[in-house]
UniProtKB/TrEMBL annotation:
Listed name of the protein: Lipoprotein
Keywords: Signal
Entry annotated with the keyword Signal: yes
Lineage, top ranks: Bacteria, Pseudomonadati, Pseudomonadota, Alphaproteobacteria, Sphingomonadales
Signal peptide per UniProt: 1-16
Domain of life: Bacteria
Record-linked PROSITE patterns: PROKAR_LIPOPROTEIN (PS51257)
Species name: Erythrobacter litoralis (strain HTCC2594)
Length: 115
């Protein structure tokens, strides 16, 4: 055999050697699955108005409100709202889930601001 023939056969031998070993099987990985947690629906204007009215019966009624989560993974919701004839969101209250319904986190402070 000549050198030229050997040089031509060398890549063929290299390619043949590549597929010889079987690939190692990946080890089974246990993945943790979280139990689905029941969560309350996001509060809208009507929900916030009823929660506020229940917590602060002597305060003016809620005219308008906007609620949003405090952060990713947070269960609490921050609501900005206006009372009586006020159409601006001048007040703030934090709602927290409790016993299957929304409750105001600090009702004394929130009710005192609305009175």
């Amino acid at each position: 055999m000549t050198k030229r023939a050997l040089l031509l056969l060398l890549p063929a031998f290299a390619l043949a050697a590549c597929g010889e070993e079987p690939a190692a099987e990946p080890a089974p990985v246990e993945t943790a699955t979280a139990e689905p947690a029941e969560s309350l629906a996001a509060p809208d204007e009507n929900v916030f108005a009823s929660v506020y009215a229940a917590a602060c019966p002597d305060a003016e009624p809620v005219n308008t409100s906007v609620c949003k989560r405090l952060g990713i993974g947070s269960a609490d919701v921050l609501c900005e709202y206006g009372l009586g004839d006020d159409e601006y969101l001048r007040n703030k209250a934090t709602l927290t889930p409790g016993d299957g319904e929304w409750t105001i986190a600090d009702p004394e402070t929130v009710c005192a601001a609305g009175a």
